[in-house]
Amino acid sequence: MTAPVLSVRGLSVRFLMPSGRRIAAVTDAHFDVAAGECLALVGESGCGKSVLASALLGLLPANAQAAGGAYLGDVDLLAADERTLARTVRGRLIGLIPQSPAAHLTPVRTVRSQLEETVVALTGTRGRAAVRQAAEAAAERAAFPAGHLDHHPHELSGGLAQRAATALALIGNAPLLLADEPTTGLDRDLVHHTVDELRRQVDVGRRALLVITHDLAAAERIADRMAVMYAGRIVEISDATAFFGLPGPRHPYSRGLLGALPERDFIPIPGMPPELGDLPDGCAFAPRCERATPTCTTLPAAAAGLVCHHPHVTEDLRA
Amino acid sequence: MSRLPWGAMARLAGRRLLFAAPILLVVTFGVFAIAAASPFDPVKAYAGTAALGADAETLERLRDNLGVDQPFTSRWWHWLTSAVTGDFGQSSVLRQPVAEVIGERLVWSSLLCAVAFLVAVLTGTVLGVLAGRRPGSLLDRVVTSVAYSLEAAPVFWLALLAVWLFALQLGVLPAGGLTDTASEQVTFRQVASHIVLPAGVLAVSQLPWFTLYVRQGVSDALAEDPVRGARARGLSESTVLLGHALRSGLLPVLTLVGSRVPELITGALLVESVFSWPGIAAATVEAATAVDFPLLAALTTLATAAVLLGNLLADLLYGLFDPRVKFSDM
Amino acid sequence: MSRRSTRTVRVRISAALVAATVLAVLLVPPLVQLDQQAVDLSSKLLSPSWSHPFGTDDLGRDLFLRCVYGLRVSLLVGAAAALTATVIGTAIGAIAGALGGRADRALMRLVDTFSSVPHLLLGIFIVAMFRPGVWPVIVSVALTHWLSTARIVRAEVLSLRARPYIDAAISGGASRWRVAVRHLLPAVLPQAALAAVLMVPHAMWHESALSFLGLGLPTHLASLGNLIQGARGSLLAGQWWPTLFPGLFIIVPTLAIAGLAGAWRERINPRRRSELML
């Protein structure tokens, strides 16, 4: 098996609030992403997915503490200082396609000028004509129409803004693409279009893709593997075909998530996710889980990409 | 940048001019109303001590000429109609047409204000960026404290201390005037050396505002999404700071820069007095002391017009630099 | 040091300075009689020393005492002007906010007009027209500084008008006048009071500028502005202290009042992130 591009081991992120409270946004994350593979990180809003992305890029706010390890090639992302992150990691090793792409662009500058600026910063291209050409080529790679290059971010539609963000992320030719909620606010066919474009980067470009999303339908379309996050913890990692087809997800929460989809049972999971500052000692999902028992007051050990005392295993189905 | 939207800009200028006309009317009316309500006697002001010895007929003729017996509204109208043709009357103290007095001095005042403004904007921006890039750092706290203290300091006091330090103690710069006392001509070198202190002091008095607003704009922008996006793309910190945070952070300053014109004029008034700079501000003080009404009325009108022009310029700049704003909305 | 503790320290220092100012201004004159006319030419223009911490002026008078007296005059005139400006501004702002419609627009146009004339210029004009003295100075300062109060009060009144209890009071039969006095006025008072306090430093500044130009208070009143003007002669001869200290006596109370009032303002008006108190 090929060596993974990204290797995350025991990554935890804690926020220290002014009141003294500690928010455990991410706890003990453990996963790999290989080249030419797409891993979808799914979970409800507020479960800590975007914080994980920020941690990988070193863009956490000042009151955050990250522990554990995240390795991209030889670089230890968590231990790297700001200089290394700015000069070797961001844009060059990890290409981020941020959530709300239009908001992540400077409103007073045109798309073209921001593309050209990134070209100059990340590649060796010099000279006005060459830079201009490179920027236009980058736009084309993400199917961003050349006619809109001289527009400003607020003039772009949701789909165009997404493509602009993708174009910017691809300039550095990074081995890992990190797409944070790439389908929010887009309508159905645009969603398909966008995820297909991203998938193309994986297949054709042989990149590793980590997609963070709460849209399971989109994940189904694009992912090779699924990682499910609940209350800051990755509770299940499975192969996508097994997850969406048979034998189906193993963790009760994942089952609940799929079951909540309109295309499936359309039954929501009862209850609410816990406050990240107030997590119970044992399994965080136990209060909402129909399979919970007193054992669940202790934290389950991680085994075969699963963190659960009472998973749905194939024996159950046969029985 | 794409072609300038001349049409929209011209329409905005036109709208502002339309708006400015009633303001100027009200201000000039107010000026005459205040004069009418005051113990000011135009005859005495014009004739000075000679009025004491003059006979009744001369005084009567003077009164007629000056239109003293007419209600102030008609005097105002008379003045207004002459003013639009460029005739602002005769200065009672300097015995010259007011327009001439202003014309002679406007150049020097404009030079002083322009230089000071430029220095204040540039220095303020640099200091604001340095302070704003790391809010709470030592540099930030020093810059902010100094800025607030300078804001509280009266500009004429700063001017006096500057004269003491640079002209008297160190002897490196002249203490006042436009040219050296002995020289006959006005040369570039002399003006250049004489403008350093007054423009410097005026700049220092305007500096804190720019510094504090740029600092606020930059530190706000650094905390927002566009900067996060720029950082995530792997741009260097200086590119992020100057190409993104500063670009966004300067916008609030641009909108408000027009509101600084009144302060600039106020500062110029005081600085020109201290340094005997031959500008209109110095003439204003003379006019006020001698109660030279025609000159005062003209100067007040001029100052108001300058303020309105400053506002217009600020709006034009803002419309040009912020692509989210349309001229038709302003 | 965390943000909150620096702010608390700043507020405490400001409060202490304001208290010191008030005490000095109230206590020193009765305790240490300074005869303004007393002239001791033998002690003329002594630089700062132990017996005269701020030195002496050109007529041998102790500069520290002169500054304290000057501060008293400047503060009194400044406070009177600020109060007058606040009354005018509150009245206009309240009327504009309460009446709304055409009256509001007209009054706001008036505000815009006044703000187009540079303060000092209008102030100079007013003082020039009337014989120089205390009242013209107060009026001149007041007439140029009522604008911000008017805007603040108007905004407050507009937001209050929208509240249901005002509507209820009016539809319950209370006359508009009664509503205005019993409900609007008390709510507006804190904002108006804050505006008045914040205006005192500006008023002091304005009066000093006028006095410095020779257009302000009569010289025998010896406000801080008068003192600086009077010190010009000695400055050119090299004596810096008669100029420096009166200026410091303007700056320090200004910063202290602004600091304290700023903290008060944050209490009653949590400000948006990008607003500055300038």
UniProtKB/TrEMBL annotation, chain A:
Q: What is its EC number?
A: 7.2.2.11
Q: Where is the ABC transporter domain?
A: 8-256
Q: How does it sit in the membrane?
A: Peripheral membrane protein
Leading EC class: translocase
Q: Which Pfam families match?
A: ABC_tran, oligo_HPY
Asked if the keyword Flavoprotein belongs to this entry, the reply reads no
Q: Which UniProt keywords apply?
A: ATP-binding, Cell membrane, Ion transport, Membrane, Nickel, Nickel transport, Nucleotide-binding, Translocase, Transport
| GO MF annotation list | ATP binding
The answer on whether this UniProt entry bears the keyword Phosphoprotein reads no
Reaction catalysed by this enzyme = Ni(2+)(out) + ATP + H2O = Ni(2+)(in) + ADP + phosphate + H(+)
Q: Which InterPro entries match?
A: AAA+_ATPase, ABC_Ni/Peptide_Import, ABC_transporter-like_ATP-bd, Oligopep_ABC_C, P-loop_NTPase
Compartmental location: Cell membrane
Q: Please tell me where this protein is predominantly located.
A: membrane
Transmembrane intervals: none
Q: Write out the similarity annotation.
A: Belongs to the ABC transporter superfamily.
Oligomeric state and partners? The complex is composed of two ATP-binding proteins (NikD and NikE), two transmembrane proteins (NikB and NikC) and a solute-binding protein (NikA).
**Protein name (database record):** Nickel import system ATP-binding protein NikD
| Lineage, opening ranks | Bacteria, Bacillati, Actinomycetota, Actinomycetes, Kitasatosporales
